[in-house]
Structures are given as C-alpha cells and as structure tokens.
C-alpha cells in the first residue's frame, strides 16, 4: 500500500463558449417535434410577439429569421441598397456584417475604431461619407452600445439609413433605451450558439418601419406575397399563392423558436449572471498589465457577450503566447476579431492595408477574449482568473 496522495485529477477543458439549454427548452422542442409542425408556424409567431414584448414595445415589428446574417441581408434589401451604393461599417467585426452588402452588389467602406471602446469611430464615419453613401451599419462590439444618438445625428444630417448589427447587444441599453428600440431603420439580433441567447441558429430583424417589415417577410420566404390573399378574402383557395420577387429561404423553424421562447424568458437573468462574472474579472485583473474592457455608462446595461482583454505594452508575453498559456491550463480563448482588412477577400477587393486602420490593427494584435457565459460555475470563473494571472507570470 502506498501512502503518497493520488495525482491531482486534471480538470476538464473549459471551452471558450457554451450555450445554457434547460429542461424547459428541451421539453418545448420535444413538444414541437410531437406536434407535427416543425417548420415556421405558431411558435415562430409567438416568439416574434414575445420578442417585441421583451423590447417593451408590443407594436414593434419583429421578423424571425434563420440567422442574423439573413436579417442584415433582408434589412438592406428592403432599404433598396444595390449596385453603386456604399455602406459604411467597422473593420473590427465579423465578416457577416459586411458580406451582406456585397450580396446586393453594393460596396463596403470599412472604417477604423475608437481605441477606447473598440466600437466604430464616429469621426471616421463622417470622413468616409461620399455622394454614393447610403447606409451605416454600426456594431455594438462585445455588447457595449455605440453612441447611437450621435450616430443617428450623423445619419440624419447626411440622409443615410442605419441598420444596427446587434448580434452582441442583447440586452444592451444606451441612455436607458434598449438597443432595438432606437431610431435606426432596423436592428438585427443573432441567436447563434455562442450569443447571449440561442436558438442554435437564428436571428431577429426589428423595425418600426411597417413597409420594411412587410418586404422582409415576403423576401424571407421565396418572395411569396401573402397580402395578395387579402384582396380576395375567402374566395382564395388555400393552395394559392403569388410570387412577387426572387426571395430567399430565411425563415426560422418552430424547432428553433421553441428554444427561443424559453431562452428569452431567461435573458434578463442571463445578463445579470454575465455582468456578475464580468465584475469578478474586472476586480481580479485590476493590478495586471492589461487594458480592461470599458463598462457601460452608469445606469446603462452592457450585455457582456464578450469579455475582451488587451495586453498592455508592458505585458511580459505576446497575445499568441498568452492564448497558448491559457490553453495549456485548459482554458479556451478566442480573438474578436481578425479585422476585415486582414482577410484576403476584403484586403484585395478594396486594396486595404493595416496602416489604414491603426487602432483596429493594434487591438487585433493585443486582444484576447476569455470565457464568459452563464453555464460557467463560480469555480470555473476562479479557474479562469487564476489562469490569466499565471499566464501573465503573476501569482
Ligand atoms: C454572430 C455575428 C453575426 C452573425 O450572426 P449569425 O446569426 O451567425 O448570422 C453578425 N455580426 C456579428 C458582429 C456577430 O458577432
């Protein structure tokens, strides 16, 4: 018999992100499967209504779609964006924000970020406006709102449309107003697996513009116009429909909406948990050679979709070394984002160089996103904190 202690059990790998799916979500999906109605139907409709109520505006138009990318595409299509037009957005985003502009044959004008918030720099927007500019797509990076009042002022002054990429911003407020209820033309949320709530894949286009919503509803399902039925009322047989445009296949299934109905009910509690974890990180990292993410102004809500650290110039390791050291301690990290100007497609199409985007480039070289999600236990949070400290050579 040996007296030595057993070797410590290696902790399981802590992934960068995980969804939190409860028994209610599972039961609702099973109910959908048993109902015989698995594609878009009553639950997708209920989810749209519940989403409007969550935004505190039961009359706002909510159009459920199978991704945020689809929602962004539909919003721009409904606004008539097309060849010859330019749309301004941030280089510091996911390619989906910009690719939808190219789907429509319009051109993307990428601009640099504000180094304090990593959100699109409003002065750079103004400098990028040309006679061809039609629209601005702000991204509420990590879940911290862009200064929308100032951005909407710029848009009004120049007669531009605004479509918010709110993939990170649920729920986020600015001046106490929820993103989705501001004065932009449309706002698009994502329910991708790693977002603040998930339907597996899914998104929601939100607008107060009834005409935009009507067009998006037609185009989300093959260009089928259901309003045509109204003209004939009861005389139209149930099998009849009219195609008014070459639409897309962007509808959200009831299986996905079943998840969404219950995720939405938990969203406020999810946000509180995320904020709690973010506060623990901010406190634990205050003495480290890091630039910590900015918090929302007093009284406003940060969704804390991402917790993005920036290694300070005096940090003893590079970003890549830091990520490797975290990985060696069993912690998954990510980088948000490899900026668009670095990717071959965007770089070559528009002749972009890193020098054109100094703040985004510097952020890219120094940022790392660490795990922050509701399925983390307090012990997981402490483990991440210890790993960050150790990876920076601090006990
Ligand atoms: C996730 C994400 C998207 C795309 O969302 P999907 O629902 O996957 O299409 C768009 N923009 C940003 C900033 C994102 O993070």
UniProtKB/TrEMBL annotation:
Q: Is Cytoplasm set as a keyword in this record?
A: no
Protease among keywords: no
Q: What is this protein called?
A: DegT/DnrJ/EryC1/StrS family aminotransferase
Which keywords appear in this protein's UniProt record, sorted alphabetically? Answer: Aminotransferase, Pyridoxal phosphate, Transferase
Q: Which family does it belong to?
A: Belongs to the DegT/DnrJ/EryC1 family.
The organism that produces this protein has a lineage beginning with: Bacteria, Pseudomonadati, Pseudomonadota, Betaproteobacteria, Burkholderiales
The organism is Roseateles rivi
**GO MF annotation: an example:** transaminase activity
- Domain of life per record: Bacteria
> What SUPFAM superfamilies does this protein's entry cite?
PLP-dependent transferases (SSF53383)
Parts forming coiled coils:
none
